[in-house]
Structure formats: structure tokens, C-alpha cells
Amino acid sequence: MRVHLSALLSVLLCPLLVAQQTAVTTAATAPQAQSTAVPPAGPPPPDTLLDGTPVKLRISQTVSSADAKVGQEVPFEVVEDVKADGEVVIPKGATAIGTVTDAQPKRRMGRGGKLNINISYVRLADQEKAALRAVKDTQGGGHVGAMTGAMVATGIVFFPAAPLFLFMHGKDITIPQGTEITAFVEGDMHLDMAKFGASAAAAKTEAAVAVKTSLIVNSTPPGADIEIDSVFVGNTPSTVDVAPGSHEITVKKAGFADWTRKLNVTGGSISIDATLGAASASGAVPNDGETASPAPSQQ
């Protein structure tokens, strides 16, 4: 009787002892597990277009496995602005390029077409190229994270090795113009932020103003019309700004022969003095007395 009682107590107490030992072991190892936790990531580096940044794209032309060729470039259009440090670095409407890496038309015996397009790069606002890939996280090893509602609806599925791959049994594959997909920036890309945003626009404006040429146009008699490249710009005396290059300057006044000269300007200031001769009965254009000379640059 005592033997049976001892055995019964052992059966009842063993699970309790094991549970207690497990709780003690867990409590002892908890601080160690906490100490090996990965610290939280710090703030992203400045002036950087981050790896994995999504870029929404829309295909600009219809592509079909029936006539697509391997190596053919496929244009895409950026659907939404992409910003870095508060500045638009990939503007809406920018161009992205994909490349056909495999294309087979439908075949006999119900074998469908095959179309594989690799998303290559997108143009930034400063005209640099940013490499793109199909999946958001290259560490994941799968393509599930790359799917979006638009992809599922159109049958477009991304794979890490073959970013845009379509297969339909017994039919050619067609991606209609306007189909939207999402690609992702490949690797962190350091940016020169001076080339983006308001500062870049101001710099371009200043540069354009700096290279313009000022034409100081006078005439005898005064009050004549001034035309530059056949466009009326004012009356003499006037100062007119023109872009670098070759221009045709015409000074005309009723009752006088037109004065015309071609000038190639590169900057600074040029003074023009046109003496208008009386119009002849034959319509000849005597251009006596006209001068075109450099003038001191105006500050």
C-alpha cells in the first residue's frame, strides 16, 4: 500500500517539479536573451535616396510576347514624385527603362507565350540614373513582398531574378499601355542636393541670366522699330537682352530703308548704332553709317 502511495505521489509531483525548473531556467536566461537583442536602427543618412524606396511606374507602350524582341527597351513613366530630404529627386513624369530579357510567342499544343521584362533604372531630376529592382527586400528571398493590387489584377508577378514575368496557357502575353507597377531603388544612392529643388532652379536661372547679351540699340533717326529674329522687341533707343548665339537684328522706320545685320553674341554688352537711309524707289536698302561695337558691360 505504501509502495503504491509513493508511486502516486511521484506521478503527481514530477510535472510540478519540471514546470518549476522550466520557469527558473526561463527567468535565468531572459536577461541574456535581452542583452543579445539587435539595437534599433539609427536615422537614415542625409542626402541619400534609400535602398528599397518605392517608385510607382506606368508602362508607356503596349508590349506583347507576339512581337517583343530580347534586348528591346521598354519605357515607363513615373506616376508620383519621389522625395529625399524633403526635395523631389524623382519627379512625376520622369522616365524609367526596362529591358526585354525573354520573349516567346504562343506555340502549338496549347503552349502559351512568355514575356520577361527586367526593370533597369529611372532618371532623377538631375538626369542621373538610379538603379531599380523588382522586390522591396532582397534579403527576403521571395517575391510575395513585391506584389501589389495592380500586379495581381493584371497578372503581373515580380521575381528577384526575372522582375517582370508573365505566362498564360495557350495565349500570347500582352502588357497594355498604362499598366501600373511598383519598382524599388537598388542600393543607397548619395545625392548632391544642390542639384535639386529651389536652389537648383535658382542656380539655373542665374546661369541663364549671366550668359545673356545686352544689345544697346540706337538709330538715326530715333523711334525706329527693333526686330530680333523677325520678332518686334521695342523702339530705338532700347536695351534688349538676347541669348547666346546667332541673331538677325533689323531696325526699320516708315519712309526709310530697313537696316539689317546678323550678329553672333556670346555675352556682355554690344552697342548698335543704325543710321537709316532714305528708301529708294527700287526698294534698295543702303546701309551706310551703321555700326555695331562692344559696350562696357553693365553691372
Question: How would you characterize the overall build of this protein?
Answer:
The chain is α+β, with helices and mostly antiparallel strands and 299 residues long. The protein has two domains: 48-191, Lipocalin, CATH 2.40.128; 209-295, Immunoglobulin-like. It is built from three helices and 21 strands. It has a six-stranded antiparallel beta barrel. A four-stranded mixed β-sheet has the order 17-14-20-21, with no helix packed on it. The radius of gyration is 37 Å and the shape is elongated.
Q: Mean pLDDT, as a whole number?
A: 73
If classified by CATH, what would the architecture of the largest domain be?
Beta Barrel
Low-confidence stretches: 16-20, 30-35, 139-169, 283-291, 295-299
Query: Outline, from the CA principal axes?
Result: elongated
What does this entry show, briefly?
18% of the residues lie in helices and 37% in strands. With 299 residues, it is an alpha+beta fold.
Question: What brief labels describe this structure?
Answer:
299 residues, alpha+beta, Lipocalin, Immunoglobulin-like, 6-stranded antiparallel beta barrel, 4-stranded mixed sheet, 3 helices, 18% helix, 37% strand
List the helices and strands and how they pair.
Blueprint lengths: L1 H34 L12 E2 L4 E6 L3 E2 L8 E6 L3 E3 L2 E4 L4 E10 L9 E10 L5 E5 L15 H6 L9 E4 L6 E2 L4 E6 L3 E2 L6 H15 L1 E8 L4 E4 L2 E5 L2 E5 L2 E8 L6 E7 L2 E8 L15 E5 L4
Parallel strand pairs: 14-20
Antiparallel strand pairs: 1-13, 2-4, 2-12, 3-11, 4-7, 5-6, 7-8, 8-9, 8-10, 9-12, 14-17, 15-16, 15-18, 18-19, 20-21
